[in-house]
Amino acid sequence: LWKINISYFDFFGIGVSFGVNPDGRAFFDLKVGIGFGTGFSYTPDGKSPNYREDGCYGSGGGGYARAGANLGPLSLDYGGSGGASSGANSIGSSIYNSQQGGLNFGRSLGIGGSISAGAEGIVVW
Prior knowledge:
This protein is mainly β. The chain has strands spanning about 1-20, 25-45, 60-85, 95-125. The chain is about 0% helix and about 75% strand. A four-stranded antiparallel beta sheet has the order 1-2-4-3, with no helix packed on it.
């Protein structure tokens, strides 16, 4: 399980995350919105915003808001996302809600900082 995040915002912008969830399913998360900043990060225990331990999640979309900064192993991150996704193997559906907040050391490695909000689409396979 891991996640890589790359983003660039100069009023309008884009953020891309991809990786592997703890259950072995790969994901791609595209964020489009408004904001300022740029960055790159690697999170060894990262997962998709709609990940659920019960396995009842799939591709979907929604909205997000985030403000954060990374400098090596030090990160400060506040934000969240929410929306709807298909259930496991596209059967059923679920609402997702993911929040993060706080100062962390060693949770991720990266460089940069940004503040942004907009829409996101998640593909899980």
